Amino acid sequence: MRILFFGTSSFAVPTLHLxxxxxxxxxxxxxxxxxxxxGRGRQPGxxxxxxxxxxxxxxxxxxxxVKSPSFVEEVQQIAPEVFVLASYGQIIPRKLxxxxxxxxxxxxASLLPAWRGAAPIQHSLLNGDRETGVTTIWxxxxxxxxxxxxQRSLPIDLEDDSDxxxxxxxxxxxxxxxxxxxxxxEGSCPKTPQDDSRxxxxxxxxxADAVIRWEQPAEMCRNRIRAMCSKxxxxxxxxxxxVKIYRAAISEETNLAPGTVISFGHGSVVVACSDxxxxxxxxxxxxxxxxxxxxxxxxxxxxxxxxxxxxPSPA
Length: 315
Known about the structure:
The chain is an alpha/beta fold. It has 2 domains: about 1-200, Rossmann fold; about 205-300, Formyl transferase, C-terminal domain (Methionyl-tRNA Fmet Formyltransferase, Chain A, domain 2), CATH 3.10.25.10. Helix content is about 25%, strand content about 25%. It is built from 8 helices and 15 strands. Helix 1 packs parallel to helix 6 (about 160-185).
């Protein structure tokens, strides 16, 4: 098939990589978001998909707005047989969706209709789900509401966080996409309408989503840390100074006030939540590097009985 690929984040990279290795498919171009300022220097940086597109020598397109008439005309001239989209970042308008004769196919990181939207992996972890998966759908202009083509499920390990789960689902999604294309070409791919009554939404993450709330149960606090570990990073504050938490585990039951430091040592800091405690294992203080939680606690001389701020300091 003659393919126009749409993708931006690291989730899309395995799919593009697998397509580039397939002798049955021809990548006519890679559409990715424009270069954005990144890092402390705020210099323009390439998306993960653009970096791979350069390596495989694929034509790169970076429209600010995909619904612009000039971009629609450019795609018409390219004449792809199929769109493949994975974690691109813009809604594709109907004028574009009608171009490829084999259809516009989206690889989505959830078992639709659960977790429609921009952050399905993070919301699945926040919710404490035990299973997730990937879905290929026939795209429509409505967000993640197209007919389901194929799905594959994946158990969520208790040690998974957004980084590890993204990696697993990205590989699973790449395999599922190739299977989907094969079945479409054969005319044997199913199309199943989604049950809108079962839809759950996963909107873009907001700063408030990353705030650790010690008054919540320990499992909810740990799920927030797992979900936010990569970006933006779950955070709290101690003595008015913000600290991000990257790894934690659930510990013993406690009746101490939420946010109270119970103990520290052996690499962790044990903090009370509403029911049980959690062990903070890896943290990053303001303007500092990532380190073990106990090294951080020793550095600022935390004592048992002291409390984390229930309302974290502003950024």
